[in-house]
Amino acid sequence: MNEVTDFLVIGAGLAGLAFAREMQAAGASVQVLDKGRGVGGRAATRRFGAARIDHGAQFFTARDAAFQAVVDGGLRDGWICEWYRSIPEWREGVIHSRPDGHPRYACPEGISALPKFLAQGLTITTETEVQSISWDDIGYVATAKNGQHFAGTTLILNVPPVQLRTLAELLLTPEDSERIATATLEPCWALLALLETDLAVDWPALELTDHPVFSWIARDHTKRGLGAPPTLVAHTAPGWTAAHLEDSTEAVAAALSSELAALLGPLAISQTQAHRWRYAKPVTALGQPFFWDTARQLGACGDWCAGGRIEGAFLSGHLLAGAC
Ligand SMILES: Cc1cc2nc3c(=O)[nH]c(=O)nc-3n(C[C@H](O)[C@H](O)[C@H](O)COP(=O)(O)OP(=O)(O)OC[C@H]3O[C@@H](n4cnc5c(N)ncnc54)[C@H](O)[C@@H]3O)c2cc1C
User: Fold this and answer.
1) Are 245 and 237 a contacting pair, CB within 8 Å?
2) Angle (CA) 34 138 291, round 5°
3) What's the mean pLDDT when you consider all of the chain?
4) Which atom of ligand 1 is found nearest the CA of 188?
5) Which of 90, 101, 130, 187 could bridge to 208 as Cys pair (CB 3.0-4.6 Å)?
6) Is the torsion defined by CA of 108, 112, 115, 121 positive or negative?
7) Domains, the chain, ranges and CATH?
8) Residue 123: enclosing H or E segment and its boundaries?
9) Which of 279, 253, 207 is nearest to 11 (CA)?
10) Strands 30-33 and 5-10, bridge-based pairing
11) CB hemisphere CA count around 297 (13 angstroms)
12) C-alpha span between 291 and 302 (Å, rounded)
């Protein structure tokens, strides 16, 4: 058993990291666990040959002062850049440009630079999937798939609501469990493609409305700077995802590559991969920025609480830290 920390955080997504960073800065001891190889959850970047592709979150916006402060620091130090101020819309076969709006930020090295920044100086154990959590007189004890145990006085869960309820079924009141069950996330497939030659178009990305297959297509290398190998990332629309959720990654990569060529014209693709996100984007939210039970010293944060998206996830963890 590891030493008992003040806070045991399950999930090193942006919400869990924002929470852990603030509590540690306030002097608390914090242990973060994540089942992934790295931190960041859906703010993910994959190396693909010489390229890097963001296959989850694509960009972020900043409206709240707390998140804007992180973004301003990243802009100053060069690991965040302003990508574009508007993304054109594809509708009924026509590309419609849109007027400039607020900045869409990206990270030249990949969006995983954002969670990596938040994770600096934290005690994080990755490749550690928590399978069960119990409560006894020393506090909460999380048992990982590899048999390790971690204990903390206060438990914070930064995992999707379905997994939260499985892990914390016996720790939540029946009312809280029912309330958390009302928050749902929908799945999505991502296609990653390395191209031999770039497309002869001027858009960085397209948001597709009412397309039967795709909801989003980005020339991902436009975030990376000059000389980056040309790449595409495409996300599927809810109907297509539902019909193909259990297909193999190979079958999905092949099907989406030909759908992409049907939409954009012949493509010189040298390599593809598909990635399934089972819990991609919130459909119905909890309706409050975080969950906190003072009597049980039990909290939860994530984009599914109120905000959706990167900034919403960050703010969920940030506001929960203020409440503890
Ligand atoms: C395809 C896609 C496109 C998106 N596009 C955008 C976009 O353009 N802009 C935007 O702002 N947002 C976008 N989002 C949403 C954004 O990625 C999320 O809102 C945000 O990253 C959620 O952070 P989080 O901390 O709430 O959760 P997550 O990132 O899901 O973090 C949860 C963490 O918990 C870990 N975990 C789960 N179960 C366990 C367990 N049992 N034990 C240990 N660890 C566990 C996971 O490994 C994960 O790291 C997109 C998401 C997807 C999937």
Assistant:
1) no
2) 50
3) 96
4) 1
5) 90
6) negative
7) 5-323 (3.50.50.60)
8) strand 123-125
9) 279
10) parallel
11) 13
12) 9
251 pLDDT exceeds 90? Answer: yes
Looking at the DSSP assignment, which residues form a beta bridge with residue 205? 218
Which residues' Cβ are closer than 6 Å to ligand 1? 10-16, 33-36, 41-43, 56-60, 129-130, 158-159, 163, 188, 190, 235, 277, 280-281, 302-303, 308-310, 313
User: Which residue's CA is minimally distant from atom 38 of ligand 1?
Assistant: 159
Encoded tokens for 58? 């694509």
Rounded to 5 degrees, what are φ and ψ at 165? -70, -35
Alpha-carbon separation of residue 217 from 154, 234, 244, 256 (angstroms): 41, 4, 18, 11
Q: Which among 26, 299, 6 is positioned nearest to 139, based on CA atoms?
A: 6
**Residue from 32, 159, 220, 304 whose mutation best tests the ligand 1 pocket (most atoms within 8 A of CB):** 159
Q: What is the pLDDT of residue 281?
A: 95
Tokens of 230: 């040309």
3-state secondary structure of 222: helix
Do residues 108 and 225 lie in contact, with contact meaning Cβ atoms separated by under 8 Å? yes
CA dihedral sign, ordered 153, 293, 167, 288: negative
Atom 10, ligand 1: residue with shortest CA distance: 309
User: pLDDT, tens digit, for every residue of 138-179?
Assistant: 899 999 999 999 999 999 999 999 999 999 988 999 999 999
Q: How far is the CA of 36 from the centre of ligand 1 (A)?
A: 11
Ligand 1 centroid, distance to 303 Cα (angstroms): 8
The H-assigned helical ranges of the chain are: 14-25, 65-77, 113-119, 161-168, 174-181, 238-244, 249-264, 309-323
Ligand 1 centroid from CA 43, angstroms? 6
